[in-house]
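Data deposition worksheet. Section B asks for the primary sequence of the deposited chain exactly as it was used as input, without tags or linkers unless they were present during the calculation. Section C holds the resulting structure in token form. Section D is free text for depositor observations; keep each observation to a single sentence. Incomplete worksheets are returned to the depositor.
Section A, Depositor: J.P.
Section B:
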Amino acid sequence: MPIKFSKYQIATAIAILFHTIGLVGILIFKSDFIIRATPVNLLLMFALLIWTQAQKNIAFWLFIASIVLLGILVEMIGVNTQLLFGSYSYSNVLGPQINNVPFIIGINWFVIIYCCGIAIHTILMKAIYKVSKETATPPMILKAISVIIDGATVAVFFDWIMEPVAVQLKFWKWDGDIPFYNYICWLLVSAAMLSLFHFFKFSKHNKFAIHLLLIQLMFFLLLRTFLYA
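Section C:
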């Protein structure tokens, strides 16, 4: 009898394969082609997240559109005014741009926010309902606080791991050191986006999203470790 794999298993295997190729290409072969293929990898992960989403209702598509557009908008403000994140600029490594911001950055914001939201929602659900009973606090309030605050904290941690790697790979550059203000803005922007994640009514169960978050964290952690070795 042939073995049947779930879409979550197939998507995870593809993600591991492509991120492994990326690690080998960057760390061993110093491949500029692999680095410039980053937008393709992001688009593939984006497609896999959509494929593994259980229910694709209107709210889900509106959430995607909102995060992608909001992600590009805040980056435009950041790059062109320095009011958000600090003084930085994008190179041409991440592909075509609009107003000095690569289109793929909107996709990147979605991938991070969606994965962080799903992870926190999945991991803390049982704990939230237990605390709700013990404290007589409505579970929806605890759920909202957890998803928004804890999810934003995870997103900031992800950015902290990713930032030095992105600079080293010339995705973008800072005028000086990476400012602490960048992480404050990441926390606030991520919290706003995760508020949309919480209030848009679509299925919040996607095992692949959790796997992808862990895969990408390990990917950037290994690059951060060995690129600076």
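Section D:
The two ends are 48 Å apart (CA to CA).
Residues 7-227 form one domain.
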